[in-house]
Amino acid sequence: MRLVAALLLGALALAAPAGASEQRPTLAELETELYCPTCASPLDQSDAPIAQRMKAYVSDLIAEGRTKGEIKEEMVAQFGERVLAAPPRRGFNLLAWVLPFAGLLVGGGAVGFAAWRWSRGREDAPAAGGADPALNGRSRLDPELDRRLDEALARYDD
Amino acid sequence: MFARLRLAAQVSAVGVVSALLGLLVWSVATEGRSKVPQRLEGRTLAAPDFELARIDRPGELSLASLRGKVVVVNFWASWCKPCKEEAPFLERTWQRYRSQGLVVLGVDYNDVDRDARGFARRYGMTYPLVRDRRGTVLVNDYGGTGVPETFFVDRKGKLVGDRIRGPVDDGEFRKRFDRYLRLALRS
């Protein structure tokens, strides 16, 4: 019960700043999430004339009270999706979000499967070779030879 | 069972790697290749058509719709300093030659709508203005590297002269502008 409460509190603590950031974004955080279209770097790392104009425009949108989502939408309307530092999570762009995790899952699964096969192979190796622990590592005799050996031993015992 | 699974996994892996390699080769082969070469050097080449949203009024305008006219296609942006210098010159050129069938078409590149409109008002640009919102017309189609950059299209829709990278009212650029404009007007 305490664990659940702690987790809930943690989630709330994380959600509160995220909500505040969405409603009242700062220029500094938006500068890292928007790209300069001519210099292919985030706005905070560019002093190109177009980047300076974009920063000024974002500042004006913040002053107008726009949310982060609205500001990003406006920048996409002005310059296209290439201004977003991270691709939107829809359509073909969804692949950029899904593929790394899918790759990890498939890779992890392949490694796990290979490890399972390897360990199982080691356990099954004696049985697969047909060896009997009683034979002490020697191969089983031909049944005919085995029968003749038993007869000879019986005669010897007599 | 396992042998089949292993074979399927191997085939899938080879397929994925081949597809990724193909994508890489295609990307490298096509990157930076535009429809217009960097130097025209007298070649006659159809000007790549485009249809873009207008800034100066509602609606769209295509280059093809101006067939039969001489078109000076000027790529510009409100944040570009040399564009401020050449804008009044382009306006005067349009006013002077429009009766001879000349159109100056301003293509705004990588800009904010309100900045572009403000710029047009400030510098008295009355010729048609459109927006290359994604920058693909300048970069991908015309092989442009920045603004200002100007092209000349004759009445048949062919590029004439060569591209001018820089303010067309300035020094050597001005001489080339006059030469290419005459070539286009004679077509």
Main traits of this protein?
heterodimer, A: 158 residues, mainly alpha, Helicase, Ruva Protein, domain 3, two-stranded antiparallel ribbon, 2 strands, 3% strand, rod-shaped, B: 187 residues, alpha/beta, Glutaredoxin, 6-stranded mixed sheet, two-stranded antiparallel sheet, 21% strand
Structure summary:
Chain A is mainly α. Helix content of chain A is 67%, strand content 3%.
Name of the CATH first level of the largest domain in chain B = Alpha Beta
Total domains of chain B, how many?
2
CATH class of one domain in chain A: Mainly Alpha
DSSP strand content of chain B: 15-25%
Task: Sketch the topology of chain B as an H/E string, one letter per element.
Answer: HEEEEHEHEHEEH
* CATH architecture grouping of the largest domain in chain B: 3-Layer(aba) Sandwich
Would you tell me the structural class of the helices and strands of chain A?
mainly alpha
If you had to describe this structure to a student in words, what would you say it looks like?
The complex is a heterodimer of chains A (158) and B (187). Chain A has helices at 2-23, 27-33, 49-63, 68-79, 94-128, 143-157; strands spanning 35-36, 41-42. Chain A has 158 residues and is mainly alpha-helical. Chain A starts with a helix and ends with a helix. The model of chain A has no long low-confidence stretch (mean pLDDT 82). Chain B has two domains: 1-31; 45-186, Glutaredoxin (3-Layer(aba) Sandwich). In chain B, strand 5 (102-109), helix 3 (113-122) and strand 6 form a beta-alpha-beta unit. The termini of chain B are far apart. The mean pLDDT of chain B is 92.
